[in-house]
Amino acid sequence: MRDARRGTVRTVALEPYAIGRLPVAVGDLPATGVAWDDAVARCNAASVAHGLRPAYRADRGLVRWDPTADGYRLPTEAEWEHACRAGAQGPTYGPLSDTAWTADDALDGPAPVGLKAPNELGLHDMLGNVWEWCWDYADPARYGGYRTLKGGGWADAAWSCRVGVRRGSSPDVRLEDVGFRVARGAVRGADGFWQGWSDDEDRRRAGFRGPLPVGWTPLRELLD
């Protein structure tokens, strides 16, 4: 996985997990205007409804993930990228005209889910149509509590609808081109990382010291 802004490349080892074939939908349309906070609450509610252990809990104003829980959850960014690529080596998993709803389709809202071609894993709409929330912070040194969005939306140019592109937004904001896809699977950590995410790394970033660049807002709450 690459982080162009920080100039880093890292290899992530993933354990098996499950992920939705489609983004969560209301009728035929992807659910939109869903805040990150809403998405994790819906994941917990679905877990309880199906007799599973919820993946999330509130802790002094922050949401904590229990990676050993078997309930529904948001994918980590690494899980999302792995599922989106489906073995492809390029920035997309096929021609966007065949696989993704983008600005080239001149839509004024999301398209019904599952109409364009899936990737090699049978997953639809991983690129285009609506951005999808992931579990990970965008960067707790620079963007405070912002969470990561992946995939691009129906109004985005082709360059935004690539596997490696990431965006961030506040977890309480509802945007018309943002939805989510659920994952499942209890996982074990290795060297402090769980499916590419690390609480220790988040805390290290949030503890950034020294003169702050203009606009940086470290998430100091992680250090409490």
Write the layout of secondary structure elements.
Layout: E1 2-3, E2 8-9, E3 18-19, E4 25-26, E5 29-30, H1 36-49, E6 56-59, E7 62-65, E8 72-73, H2 77-85, H3 96-99, E9 131-137, E10 147-150, E11 166-169, E12 178-179, E13 183-184, H4 199-206
Parallel strand pairs: 9-12
Antiparallel strand pairs: 1-2, 3-13, 4-5, 6-7, 8-13, 9-10, 10-11
Throw out a few tags for this protein.
about 15% helix, globular, alpha+beta, 4 helices
Please state the overall shape, judged from the principal axes of the Cα atoms: globular
Q: Low-confidence runs (pLDDT<50, min 5 residues)?
A: none
Total number of beta strands = 13
Q: Please summarize the sheet with the most strands.
A: 4 strands, mixed
Report the order of strands and helices. Answer: EEEEEHEEEHHEEEEEH
Average of per-residue pLDDT values: 95
Strand fraction equals: 15-25%
Descriptive notes:
With 224 residues, this protein is an alpha+beta fold. The chain has 4 helices and 13 strands. The chain has a 4-stranded mixed beta sheet. A hairpin with a 4-residue loop joins strand 1 and strand 2. The protein is globular and about 45 Å long. The two termini are 29 Å apart.
Structure summarized in a few sentences:
With 224 residues, the protein is of the alpha+beta class.
